[in-house]
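Quick one, T. Sequence first:
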Amino acid sequence: MMIGMRQSAHRAQGRLLAALMLPVGIVALSWMPISGGAAVAQDSATPTPIAAGVLGDPATDTGCSLEIGATPEADVAAAFQIVSDQSLARYRVEEELAGRGAAEAVGETNAFIGTIFLDDQGIPIPCSRFDVDIRTLKSDEARRDNYLYRNTLESERYPLATFIVTGIEGLPDPLPEGQDTTLTLIGNLTLHGVTKLVAWEATVRLDGKTLKGTAWTQFEMPDFAITPPKVGPVVGLDETVRLEVEVTAHQIQE
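Structure tokens:
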């Protein structure tokens, strides 16, 4: 079963990656207990909520291969592959425009692929992953997109954002069937060549052979060595960036 799963996942990933012309780099989503440098203090009786945002230095020794198409060494009971045209990644930034006042800049892409793995108890396991190609981010303003591509994000040099989850808070049991589950994802986010440990607020739902979810986090541009853009009518910019993802994944193996 594992050999067939690896071949199927590798073929699907390879076709989509070739279409996107992705260079070296990944976005990885891996589910595993928090340990070592990634530990987050929590009282099991009275857990302390973790706010979405940057927590500090990245976790080390996650135990997951960074090779695109790699599968976990642990036993996999079910694999869910992200459906790109039903999923997306998005940024939101508040800006001040000359003659218009406050506005929100929003850019998104569905160049978003990956596979999520569950064990035989229905619990996410290490090394599930997704990849986002930030070169394809589009907003309602081409001038903004071009500036972000060439200057702010340096998208040719850093074409992909990377997320490796090192822990999950709020999921003591397997994902329940047919109902929303709210949880916190904790892991390494790599963007613009910088890696930080971040927390995401997420809601996921398992319906038969379909897994859906949304998640968001936020950071300050200097956290990832990003220089605030100055282009066109922009006269002011909030350096807080909100990242959002919407995921639909279909089961490809059981």
